[in-house]
Amino acid sequence: xxxxxxxxxxxxxxxxxxxxxxxxxxxxxxxxxxxxxxxxxxxxxxxxxxxxxxxxxxxxxxxxxxxxxxxxxxxxxxxxxxxxxxxxxxxxxxxxxxxxxxxxxxxxxxxxxxxxxxxxxxxxxxxxxxxxxxxxxxxxxxxxxxxxxxxxxxxxxxxxxxxxxxxxxxxxxxxxxxxxxxxxxxxxxxxxxxxxxxxxxxxxxxxxxxxxxxxxxxxxxxxxxxxxxxxxxxxxxxxxxxxxxxxxxxxxxxxxxxxxxxxxxxxxxxxxxxxxxxxxxxxxxxxxxxxxxxxxxxxxxxxxxxxxxxxxxxxxxxxxxxxxxxxxxxxxxxxxxxxxxxxxxxxxxxxxxxxxxxxxxxxxxxxxxxxxxxxxxxxxxxxx
Length: 384
Description:
Layout: H1 20-23, E1 27-33, E2 38-43, E3 50-55, E4 60-64, E5 69-74, H2 86-94, E6 100-105, E7 111-116, E8 120-126, E9 132-139, E10 145-151, E11 158-163, E12 167-172, E13 178-183, E14 189-193, E15 206-207, E16 210-217, E17 221-226, E18 229-237, E19 243-248, E20 255-260, E21 266-272, E22 275-280, E23 292-296, E24 300-305, E25 308-313, E26 321-323, E27 335-337, E28 343-347, E29 352-357, H3 359-383
Antiparallel strand pairs: 1-29, 2-3, 3-4, 4-5, 6-7, 7-8, 8-9, 10-11, 11-12, 12-13, 14-16, 15-16, 16-17, 17-18, 19-20, 20-21, 21-22, 23-24, 24-25, 25-26, 27-28, 28-29
């Protein structure tokens, strides 16, 4: 059967069901100290206050941001060194410094993936609380693993990775067997953007049980791949022509990219097929690092730029508002919304993480404060 290419979509006519000032998480409600510099963060898809963090020294942490409790802290360690290829073993010995490039939860929150700057991907199973168990270790790429995600081609849960070796690979999330290898980029692959079809209502890149995903390399080339075909179906160039990441809107009907050039020029754009539909304005003239971004509620875009967080309405290219999270942010802070868009995790200076909340998020976090106060009062009564 002939496959259809991803269709174009207008991206207009989305209902405005809430007001920007109240629905944007702008108020600092929590400040956490990770102990090393956060490089990637991801909220649990179901437990809205559970935050996964990966850092520049290979550490991963799991926080309950409501109670400010760090549930898990794990330093980098190869689980099965003898199972690694000889180049991987040599690199891990001669260059022991390892950074986390990406942490991410599976769509149901039962697994979490960690991509490291040296060859390795580790997958943990999560059983609630502080119960995080080793599940899979994959010697995934020659060089760094730059990104990973979860997808489900043929209704099979898989892990998708990309790396410095210019390839994208798909792995069985149950046993770690390699399913596909995609080659065609001429530079290291910086990011992948898969989707998980049960979580997306109407996806323009899912047609007749054929799934597509995006990849972007550090020369600015973006490719769209078909999971049952090793060749890219569409190839285009992202603004900035360097480090680019992509993200869907929550319902999967719109696709955006954020890229920063080697000269520090940053761009967020919305795509229609392989064409730029909108270019959002408001970045400083020269960003001091690679700008990170995220989407939420089928409505908002956010990016860390110029020691602040900038917000846009998806339907308006003009900057909506900027917040500095009470100061203390790096030049290009890492950011991540929770699934409901009520909380926003932002990396701070001195290994900190700030949790910003909107009105609903403040209400949620205050329930933890009330529970803590009730418990403290109960303990005091028990001691009297």
